[in-house]
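Hello,

Following up on my earlier ticket. Below are the two sequence lines again, exactly as submitted.
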Amino acid sequence: MISIVVFATGLTLILIGIWGMLTHRNILRIVIAFSLIGTGTHILMVAIGYVARGTAPIIDAGLSITEAPMRAVDPIPSALAVTAIVIGLAVTAIMLALAIRLYEAKKTLSIDAFTESKW
Amino acid sequence: MIRRAGIVLAVALFGFVFASLTVHHVERQSLPPLAKRYVELVPQELGAPNVITGILLTYRALDTLGEVAVLFMVAAGVGLVLGSRARRNENAPSDTPPSSRQASEIVRTGTQILVPLIAIFAAYIITNGHLSAGGGFQGGAVAASSAILLLLADPRQQFAQHFLSSTESAAGVLFVLVGIAGLLFAGGFLDNRVLPLGQFGTFFSAGAIPLLSVLLGAKVGCELSVIIDRFRA
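Thanks for your patience. The regenerated structure is below:
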């Protein structure tokens, strides 16, 4: 049950990101919308890895080694989410650097000013 | 008007696809076989209580190494995109007065109190990555947040560029050397069993995983600080 709520939350965030990317004309807002899509994807991955009544795959007083395979959630999507967060940060940093250069070229952040790259 | 209708149509279609995905999503009742193997093997073979750290720093450590390489390339890429700007600004006549006003006293005092605490917290997260939630990436990001705070308090703050880049390079080289040691003395590249596994659940355990965590944390923290520093006007 709980994973369906998290799943829907991730998809809603992705949808908001798509809408924001399509409607906004400011490059910074488009970058924010892109980050929203990334965050929604991370939440989605964690939701897919959830196992009913599972707990974090960390062996401690509350989760012994023998019962871990029965009670732990899938660790692979969580490990993948760490990777995806770092790559998301990398893409955002490059996008922001390019936004700075575009602003210097036209003194505006509206994509309407960059008609020469329109096809 | 047509544009707006197109956007509404696209978002509605995506919404339809996502809604049907949500409706048909079934919660898993048990782990898939591969995940089950990981959950069993990480505590037994690697001696690490945190399964995710075990996957990231041993079974999938080559991916982690590649990811650090991606971060390095981003630092280089941001420097490439923004680098010529800094040089041009230096050449430009600096008759315009600096428009940025000083940060408020709350921010400056808060920075002095928080930066040591953030550093300690980052060290805690990095060194406990094999025992509980945490690890090199997370702790490195926390450490880099103190760099943002320092820049907010004083935008003209100069970081020790030489120290950052040499720490980053040394951590990267040591990370690969630990990996090669795994190739020579244990099961394969970046195998953590080059060091004794120790007692399960104690601070000095899980072989080379704490060492790799520290190296990764230092590298990520330095790289993110360099990236943040490059964005300064």
